[in-house]
Amino acid sequence: MDIRWDNLGEVSLASFGVTIAVVVLFSLAIAAWNRAGGLRGGAAGGGPARVAAGAAVLCFAACLAVAAYGIDLIVPG
Q1: Gap between the Cα atoms of 29 and 34, Å rounded
Q2: Gap between the Cα atoms of 45 and 37, Å rounded
Q3: How far, CA to CA in Å, does 36 sit from each of 24, 58, 60, 66, 69?
Q4: How far is the CA of 32 from the CAs of 20, 44, 45, 54, 59, in angstroms?
Q5: Per residue in 53-63, pLDDT tens?
Q6: 29-38 long-range CB contacts below 8 Å, 24 or more apart?
C-alpha cells in the first residue's frame, strides 16, 4: 500500500480550513442574531436589527449548506 502524502496533506489542510470557516460563520451568526434581538423580536429596533437578522440567517444558511455538501460527499448515491 502506497500513501500519497501530498494528497493527504491537501485534504487535511482543506478540511481544517473549512472547519475554521464554518466555526467563524456560526460565531458571526450567533453574534448577529444576538444583535438583532434574538427571539425577543428586535429590541434594538428598526433597520439595523433587520440587517443583523438577515446576516444571521445568511450565515446559518451557509453553515447548513456546507454541512449538507459534506453529507452529500460521504453518503453514496
Answers
A1: 8
A2: 8
A3: 18, 13, 14, 24, 28
A4: 18, 12, 14, 8, 9
A5: 999 999 999 99
A6: 29/55, 29/56, 29/57, 29/59, 29/60, 29/63, 30/56, 32/56, 32/59
Please state, in angstroms and rounded to a whole number, the distance separating the CA atoms of residues 54 and 34. 12
One-letter amino acid for residue 47 of the chain: G
Are the beta carbons of 59 and 28 closer than 8 angstroms? yes
Q: What is the pLDDT of residues 27-55, one digit of tens each?
A: 999 999 999 887 666 555 678 889 999 99
Report the C-alpha dihedral over residues 24, 29, 30, 32, rounded to 10 degrees: 120
Q: What is the DSSP letter of 47?
A: H
